[in-house]
């Protein structure tokens, strides 16, 4: 059963360690599998190592003086551990980094054009844009406005749209819900789920908003202090009492006794 699941992984990350500046061990033997066509969440609090995990996969560590010091990453069966970031993009890995990076002085339509891979024909680009506008009707309405004046939610939709133009087979999103109202998070996550269902796009989602993430993924990993401390189906994670208490806001309140209890119980996780 385990072997079968691994055989169907689009991403297989095994015992990865990442060092920043040759001294700071940010992740300590993280293993994550993303099934082909699956949606998986990486959950955890600030500084746990979620973004570092995504950067190790997309090859963006070098820009931050980080490197993989141990372990192996396979994408669709190919070892990409040492591969240049650009080559990983060409293979179908797309990483939407935290903070909705779009060209603010360009329109959404121009942003999508700028994100298209070299060599994509005008007709193919037009097909891709139509598809993106179908998924994100709000973006279609604003396609000729200046992107800098779009709302936070619309900018996040545009950042995802820019990723989709590259026609990835693995889409990695870093905190797409950050700073957005709950109804917008629900709208964007609903669209992501639709794209996953209709296009078979594999998604690896980094989120602090565990409640929203566990509604759309099929499985999740909880990362604490650079280590995976829990892995399971979304249903299993949602019903886990520690996850409920620490990440889903189902706790008993924050009086002094509970905070001490919280720290004690959380230690086993790390
Ligand atoms: N460029 C860097 N140089 C040195 N240390 C870094 C760098 N980036 C991250 N770190 C450290 O690595 C650890 C993991 O950080 P990371 O950003 O991966 O966590 P995270 O779970 O994504 O949290 P957040 O949501 O706050 O970004 C933290 O201790 C952080 O301070």
Automatic annotation (TrEMBL):
ABC transporter domain residues: 11-250
Keywords (A to Z) from UniProt: Amino-acid transport, ATP-binding, Nucleotide-binding, Transport
Domain of life: Bacteria
One Gene Ontology term from the biological process aspect of the record: L-amino acid transport
Pfam family of the protein (one): ABC_tran
GO molecular function: ATP binding; ATP hydrolysis activity; branched-chain amino acid transmembrane transporter activity
PANTHER family assigned to the protein according to its UniProt record, in alphabetical order: ABC TRANSPORTER SUBSTRATE-BINDING PROTEIN, HIGH-AFFINITY BRANCHED-CHAIN AMINO ACID TRANSPORT ATP-BINDING PROTEIN LIVF
Family listed: Belongs to the ABC transporter superfamily.
UniProt-recorded name of the protein: Amino acid/amide ABC transporter ATP-binding protein 2, HAAT family
Organism: Paracoccus solventivorans
């Amino acid at each position: 059963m385990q072997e079968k699941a691994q055989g169907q992984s689009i991403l297989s990350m095994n015992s990865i360690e990442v060092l920043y500046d040759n001294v700071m061990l940010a992740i300590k033997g993280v293993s994550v599998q993303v099934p082909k066509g699956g949606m998986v969440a990486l959950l955890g609090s600030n500084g746990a190592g979620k973004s570092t995990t995504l950067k190790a996969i997309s090859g963006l560590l070098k820009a931050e003086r980080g490197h993989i010091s141990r372990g192996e990453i396979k994408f669709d069966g190919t070892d990409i551990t040492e591969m240049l970031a650009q080559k990983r993009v060409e293979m179908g890995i797309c990483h939407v980094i935290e903070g909705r990076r779009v060209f603010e002085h360009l329109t959404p339509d121009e942003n999508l054009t700028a994100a298209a891979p070299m060599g994509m024909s005008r007709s193919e680009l037009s097909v891709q844009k139509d598809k993106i506008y179908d998924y994100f009707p709000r973006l279609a309405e604003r396609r000729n406005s200046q992107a800098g004046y779009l709302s936070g939610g619309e900018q996040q939709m545009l950042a995802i749209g820019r990723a989709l133009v590259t026609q990835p087979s693995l889409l990695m999103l870093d905190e797409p819900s950050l700073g957005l109202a709950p109804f917008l998070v629900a709208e964007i996550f609903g669209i992501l789920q639709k794209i996953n269902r209709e296009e078979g796009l594999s998604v690896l989602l980094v989120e602090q908003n565990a409640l929203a993430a566990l509604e759309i993924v099929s499985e999740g990993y909880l990362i604490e202090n650079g280590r995976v401390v829990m892995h399971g189906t979304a249903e299993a994670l949602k019903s886990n009492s520690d996850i409920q208490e620490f990440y889903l806001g189902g706790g008993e309140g924050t009086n002094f006794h509970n905070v001490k209890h919280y720290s004690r119980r959380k230690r086993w996780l790390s």
